[in-house]
Amino acid sequence: MSHPHTHLRTGTPPARAGAADWRAWSQAWTQHVPLLTGRTDLTVLVAPGAAGDAPECFYPDLNRIEVDATYIAERPDITDPAKARHKRLVPTGYGLLVHGAAHAAHSRWATPPGTPPILAAVADMLEESRAEGRQRARRRGDRRWLRHVVKTLLDPDDAAVDDAWHAGQLAALLLARVDARIVTRTDVRPVRAAVTGVLGRKRLRQLRDIWREAHTCDDADADTMIALARRWCQVLGIDPDQQYDAPVPDAGLFPGRLAAALVDYLAVAAGVTPAEYAAALLAHRHSPSEEWDRTDPTEQEHRAARDLANRLRQARTRHPEPGRRPSTIPPGRLRTRHAITAEAQIAAGQMPTAAPWQQRAQLPPEKPRLHLAILVDLSGSMGRYTEAMSSAAWIFANAARRADATTTTIGFGDRTTVLVPPRTYPRQVMHMRTGLATATFPEAVKVADQLLDLRHGRTLRMLAVVSDGYLDDIPAGQHLVTTLHRAGCAVLWLHPADPPTGGEPTDPNQVWGHTFTHATTLTVTDPTEAIAAIADAAVTALAQA
Q1: Helix (H, G, I), strand (E, B) or coil at 423
Q2: Residue 41: C-alpha distances to residues 32, 44, 48, 53, 232 (Å)
Q3: Rounded to an integer, what distance in angstroms lies between the CA atom of residue 120 and that of residue 159?
Q4: How far apart are CA 533 and CA 389, in angstroms?
Q5: Is the domain of 160 the same as that of 44?
Q6: In this structure, is residue 361 part of a structural domain?
């Protein structure tokens, strides 16, 4: 999803493929937009991929609003855009048009030249709720559509980590819309609690004063908007003259309460549970490529899955035999001979020494469920391992079904790919392909944590990484590994014994064979040895649990 600054753009956008199929929509909305904006010089373009990486955007220099057709429907014949009732059938798409219209009608200011990017970013965030609030005040009926589309304009990445900047960003993009009367206080109650937990009540009140003042700014008052952005940075402890660019999230930190609260809000807005929303988001972002081959599993793979399942079941059910001890009182099993002896001793006036009851020691608690995440390096230097690890993904997933375990296999390289999600049992083996980079290792660890909750819970948690350690961001990766280790998640790192071909790495942050602390590192000579090492580690962890 896009940052708010992508909703207002300068320059000339590229031609959009598929625009001809949606020409009727562009024409109908171009005729309709004067009603929304009060302007007669605007055009609307509807096409798949329009607005760049945003759902919609407004080009002030071209007087054009662009709306990505993928947020309307898969096909343009879903309804007739020239008829008024069409908006009820495509509320998200129409809400994007209204949002673009709000910018076209009320975002009449431009960032002054030489403004630090961090101030421009804050001003753009404040402009979101300001423009929508002005649109609602002028056309009250548009609140319905703006309220509906808020979930499309927000993304969990807007609250990537729990720091002051991202808490302020979430406050500007969502909490400020309460004062703009787009959403209600009830809607954002969990988000407000999370933002307050990060910023504190005092700083949040100061930020609210700023965005409420922004709502009163004139449509063309750029100087006041930039001045308010500077005050915003000062409240957050940021000096825009020293920190020129907007902060980026620390790749070595896991998402926290801000992201969880935002996901809850977006799930409610979409009418699904948070788990369903997170699953849909993961499927959208990290699904395997359609170009990857799929084949039926071989008999050897079926046998390997059965053998691994048997080993995991035995490790899970293997307990010391509970001991037995005699007792003079129940509960327990009555031993008739000893009961008779005790009665005879009592009849003879003796102190009974016989113990007529036999008790078993309490059974040990059930062993925790195994949560195992396997991360596979898909860079070019790991090409020899991808075929075997593709087979391993199928084997572990199907073994987990029989052994009361939960596994997932994730590839990382140019992008993060969830090869086998948890609690799914693929019918076919999907063959991964290598790429050129390992830039997404930190993201892959975070996805594994999101899928299996590696930092929390009473489960037996384990992360296995098959990689030569030739990574793009080793410090961030180390921080994540350390966090998992301290949370009780075991980390197993499997290094190939042979160095990558193609020469030595030149980037000082990329070191082949880098050994991570707080991880158990093993050197393997072939792919099958890596599979066996992961299986042995999982079985051993279960047996010792």
Answers
A1: coil
A2: 12, 10, 23, 25, 35
A3: 19
A4: 12
A5: no
A6: no
Which CATH number does the domain housing residue 418 bear?
Answer: 3.40.50.410
Strand pairing class (405-412; 370-377)? parallel
Q: Are residues 102 and 116 in the same domain?
A: no
260 within some domain: yes
Rounded to whole angstroms, the Cα distance separating 453 from 484 reads 10
| Position 404 in a domain | yes
Q: Please tell me the predicted confidence (pLDDT) of residue 2.
A: 43
pLDDT at 336: 86
User: 12: burial class by Cβ within 10 Å (0-12, 13-18, 19+)?
Assistant: exposed
Positions in the chain whose pLDDT score sits under 70: 1-17, 318-323, 361-365, 498-513
Q: How far is CA 289 from CA 213, 284, 296, 438, in A?
A: 48, 11, 18, 17
Tell me if residue 493 falls in helix, strand or coil.
strand
Confidence at residue 169, expressed as pLDDT on a 0 to 100 scale:
95
- Indicate whether 159 and 281 sit together in one domain: yes
Kindly report, residue by residue over 448-489, the tens digit of the pLDDT.
999 999 998 778 999 999 998 888 888 999 999 999 999 999
**pLDDT for the residue numbered 328:** 79
Kindly tell me the burial class for residue 42, based on how many C-beta atoms sit within 10 Å of its own C-beta (0-12, 13-18, 19 or more). Answer: buried
Decide which of 86, 106, 126 is a domain's last residue.
Answer: 106
CA angle 45, 47, 49 (to 5 degrees): 115
Number of domains in the chain: 4
**Residue 12 confidence (pLDDT):** 63
Is residue 349 located within the same domain as residue 375? no
Q: Containing domain of residue 532, as a range? A: 294-311+370-544
**Burial bucket for residue 83 (CB in 10 Å: 0-12, 13-18, 19+):** exposed
Q: Tell whether the torsion through CA atoms of 540, 431, 387 and 440 is positive or negative.
A: negative
Co-location of 244 and 341 in the same domain: no
- Single-letter code of the amino acid located at 45: L
